[in-house]
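The following record pairs a protein chain with its ligand, alpha-D-galactopyranose.
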Amino acid sequence: YPVFGVGCDAECALMVTHPDGNMSLEMVVADVSREEQPDAQLTTITMKDKVYPFEVKVVYKAYKKMDVIETWSEIVHQEKKPVTLNIFSSGYLPIRQGNVWISHLHGTWGAEGTMTTEPLHPGMTVIKNKDGVRNSHTSHSEVMISLDGKPQENEGRIIGAALCWSGNYKLRLDTEGSRYHDFFAGINEEASAYRLEPKEVFTTPELALTYSKEGLSGASRNFHRWGRNTHIAHGNKTHDILLNSWEGVYFNVNQKVMDQMMGDIASMGGELFVMDDGWFGDKYKRNIDTAALGDWVVDKAKLPGGIADLVAAAKKHNVKFGIWIEPEMTNIYSELYEKHPDWIVCPPNRTAKPGRGRTQLVLDLSNPKVQDFIFGVVDNLMTENPEIAYIKWDANMNIINYGSSFLTGDKQSHLYIDFHRGFEKVCQRIRAKYPDLAIQACASGGGRANYGVMPYFDEFWVSDNTDALQRIYMQWGTSYFFPAVAMASHVSAAPNHQTGRILPLKFRFDVAMTGRLGMEIQPKNMTDDEKAFAKKAIASYKEIRPVIQMGDLYRLISPYDKKGVASLMYCSPEKEKAVFFAYKLEHFVNQVVPRFRMAGLDPNKKYRIEELNRTGNRPLSVEGKSFSGSFLMNEGIELYLMREYASCVLKLTEVR
Ligand code: GLA
């Protein structure tokens, strides 16, 4: 944990300014302690400054049954006045130079989770975010580092790192003259100098580290197991198949249409209906995105019977009911903003520039009154309608006006951090009172795919882009760090609303089924044949759901390798069941498609193959036949995916 000030000529993990202006630290180890916890061993290294009453604990939490070590630091002092923290990383890791490559995610709205893989060059590599609210639209705070050149999916040594923080972050990889790439990860310190009061403990977010000799997929499986067990709400419970109203009707929700959609998803075998944006507002109505955020009362013109009638309709159709909110936000046109203009994030003495709809503003979560209000949004909904089973929690704006009317002048630079501490406090209160509620983290699509929020959320919306072809790429990247159970993946209309692409319904299902399956479409516009296909696919998904959502992921052929195909599979931990997926991404005459060699099976077991979601009458040559795991993994199978957007789902079951 390199510190700044004495004998330091490189990047550091910690840089402070003492009250007397001295900017140096010189730490010596004062104590090393070990503590056994039920699931982990905690090692704490306490370091004290040689001169100043300043202390840092570096903590390592090594899980017993999972190949993950979390590390973080706890900073405290007993100086007379506040010490300013200028850089405060969660952890540091030296990585021996060699043929070291990095894989990381980047993106934008509609193209989240896009992957880049590159060798580490001399100089600084910085991956960071400064959105203020959502931190994974652009880059991600997770990386894979390959120690054996260009990374492979199922072989080679990989170090994975994931910072568990919902706000701005910075990952630095410094490659200087030494033999090491110096890796630092932590909260982004830009505009975030933190004045630490005497005796106040500043705990940095956890940095989760993993290591695998089984390639990128191996490191992913480590993260998935750890995530499901420790960092995702209800990560060990399978999730419901749902219909969300957004792409089906957008803001045009009303009692009749909601009832119809519930009936349709129920008849196709779905388990949950989620009413999206558009249901609220009294003085200002939520008919478009310019008004009413903050006014969380039912629009009586659209829903005369209120939420109670919707809950009753859901009961009638035998599906659960869920609802959309965006509680951290308001609009200029809202009763909330009229009443509390000082509750927004905005520098004092200035006028805020609005976001979405040219009217949206972010509420100041550093303010405890705002925290109470946001908790109240959920608490009121749940108190009045305890049957609500699912909440989609959206966040469609970033912090573009830096400043707080709540924070004092000397603590304005705490806003980026205190916003997220406030957010976490609200989440903790919600979870304490509503432990069973399912909550989705949505943030203009995939803006909140991070392990800072996931302990409180069951899943995240991968992207507002539901085009199944682009989703193959986005879900591929996102699956590096997050398990299928957390990745909400919906079948939507053709032509797709974001890209205009027309894809077969089978392809759309075959892609959505690799995550938490849902639909986001107006079923009324589907033909009877399409509904019948959807019904069968949903029934099949129920069969394979435990393998997908709780199983081990083996990515086989990457879409990024441009072989015209992509393929992946999930295996149950006992390896008696597996599900294989293959997709044709583009098609040319005389194109050579590789054989599909599987992974993750037991070489000595025999597996029977059954195709799911088959269209047409011709069974595959492997249909109903049994093969050894060894054959499937070493020789593989031929699949003649003879046209663009052909796809294939195979269920493998052990033959005893
Ligand atoms: C965001 C979300 C969408 C939808 C809309 C509603 O864009 O990502 O899924 O909920 O808001 O306004």
